[in-house]
Amino acid sequence: MPYNNENTLMENGTNFLLPDMAPTDDAFSEEELTEEFAGLQPNFQRVKIPGGGTQQFELPGEDPDNPDYARTIEGVIVYHHPACAYWPAGSEYDENISPYCSSVDGVTGIGDPGGACAVCELNKYGTDVKGKGKACKNMRQLYILRSGEYLPVLLSLPPTSLTPFNDFMNAVCIARRRPAWSFVVQIGLKRVDNGSNTYSVETFRKIADFTGEDIVKVKQYANSFREQIRLMNQQRAVEAETRSDTTAYGTESGYTVAENNGHFCISGNEVADGDRAELPL
């Protein structure tokens, strides 16, 4: 995917390359991409947070056995939404265990027990095995577009990072009446020791605002991307609800990649993310 080198953001010495959304002569057609990816399952590469209070992110790379590590992530949050998942006790962080119940929007759970998340007994404080937190894990999915890349990476915020993210959004977005995609954010990790457990909490800092033509281009990308993710989540919820088991992941079907006038688009009968039962998109 070509990039427009003029799409740069200059503030505090920061240069941010936005993807060129306009089709070009050397762009791949829908037919070429459909044939190339037939039978494969599309998914967003996930940023992981190692346990034990580690202050580095594990970033996906071309070699899955040798990931990259970085103390911070810089990019644009082009979309974010709540999500929930309930695992068997003690299996919350086991990548090989599927959740009993999950929600792609933090509103309606699918599985066991399923139903409205707001009134679910497992979504109340004091229901986890330690008697303090919730048995159901509340999270937030952040789709982060990094400079020079075409697709975002996916960062799942754990319950301990929801308050810092909420405070950041209030101060930087709501107070200034700006959406999250209108600036570049730097996300880091802070080590926390509560006496019985050591873990990492995300930190957030705005490092640059988009202005002029750049904000028009990033808005175009974010709007198109956001609509596609909503459709994908709706399809996932329907498929999960109609399956005989309660696993919301690991579906097997093909998909097509459409040009959509140069905008980001993944479409098909189903959208799968079979790499991890950690959380729906």
- The span between the termini is 24 Å
Order of helices and strands: HEEEEEEEEEHEEHEE
Low-confidence stretches: 1-8, 246-281
Q: What would you call the shape?
A: globular
Give the DSSP E fraction (strand runs of 2 or more residues). 25-35%
Averaged pLDDT: 76
Tally of structural domains: 1
Helix content class: 10-25%
Q: Let me know the largest β-sheet.
A: 9 strands, mixed
Derived structural class: alpha+beta
Number of strand segments = 13
Calculate Rg over CA atoms: 19 Å
Q: Total helix count? A: 3
Report on this model:
18% of the residues lie in helices and 26% in strands. It is of the alpha+beta class. The chain has one domain (30-267). Strands 1, 4, 5, 6, 7, 8, 9, 10 and 11 form a nine-stranded mixed beta sheet that branches. A hairpin with a 7-residue loop joins β8 and β9 (153-157). The longest helix has 31 residues, at 212-242. The protein is globular and about 50 Å long. The two termini are 24 Å apart. The model is unreliable at 1-8 and 246-281 (pLDDT under 50).
